[in-house]
Amino acid sequence: MTVERLALVIPAWNEATRLKEHAFSDFVTRQEVVDLRFVDDGSTDATPEKLEAIRCQAPERITVQRLEPNRGKGEAVRLGMQAAFDAGCSLAGYLDADLAAPLDTALLLREALLADSSLAMVLGSRVKLLGWRIRRSERRHYLGRIFATCASLALGMPVYDTQCGAKALRAGAATDAALATPFLSRWLFDVELIARLRDAGAAMREVPLPVWEDPGGSSLRARDFLAAPVELWRIRRRYPPSA
Question: Which pLDDT value is given to residue 94?
Fold first, then answer.
């Protein structure tokens, strides 16, 4: 019986001080169904050297893709996912390099795709439930809820958390089309990805995450938050929801 492996894309830009090197090597050692594909997005610090050290620990399971110059997270994810599917992977996902969602999240997303073959994408969702470990600053939580409401309205879909950096997709025509061209936004690409799959009639489902711990030090700047409404409007104008 063929085991469907998942390629996990991890975009990294100047993450040298936050990369948990042993976490990645330990993860590939203790499971055999998820491989790692780092995308170094034109880093100018020691990130390339750290990624190469991680790759050398399991070169058959870990790859590093270098982009030059910096393209932004959306393009890093898109090109990394494209490369994974072009290499023959049937399932591919992405997580943030800071591991706010632990690497085991990839196993959860993979299982959700395997449980329902009709799904083109599963989206991690940071729902604060009693007994679950979802830890974000109050400011980021409430700003996130405001943005998530706006994104849901823009998409015309009941999406709880568009911006969770944990998603997985299945290879197919709809996925290929959704990844074929660059996104409008460097940071709100998740919203546009959902819109592209929605317009293709692809099935999607949110999966609540049991663990999310914001480590701080995000590369998002205040101006990125201020630009978000304009970028969301651009996405809605390009991909208006059906009447």
Answer: 98
Conformation bin of residue 14: beta by default, left when phi > 0, alpha when psi is -120 to 50: left
CATH architecture classification, 6-238: Alpha-Beta Complex (3.90)
Among positive and negative, which fits the CA dihedral 108, 112, 113, 114?
positive
Distance between CA 91 and CA 170 in Å, rounded? 5
First to last CA, the chain: 44
Q: Where are the chain's structural domains?
A: 6-238
3-state SS of the chain?
A: CCCCCEEEEEEECCCCCCCCHHHHHHHHHHCCCEEEEEEEECCCCCHHHHHHHHHHHCCCCEEEEEECCCCCHHHHHHHHHHHHHHCCCCEEEEECCCCCCCCCHHHHHHHHHHHCCCEEEEEEECCCCCCCEEECCHHHHHHHHHHHHHHHHHHCCCCCCCCCCEEEEECCHHHHHHCCCCCCCCCCHHHHHHHHHHHCCCEEEEEECCEEECCCCCCCCHHHHHHHHHHHHHHHHHCCCCC
For the stretch 76-133, pLDDT in tens is 999 999 999 999 999 999 999 999 999 999 999 999 999 999 999 999 999 988 888 9
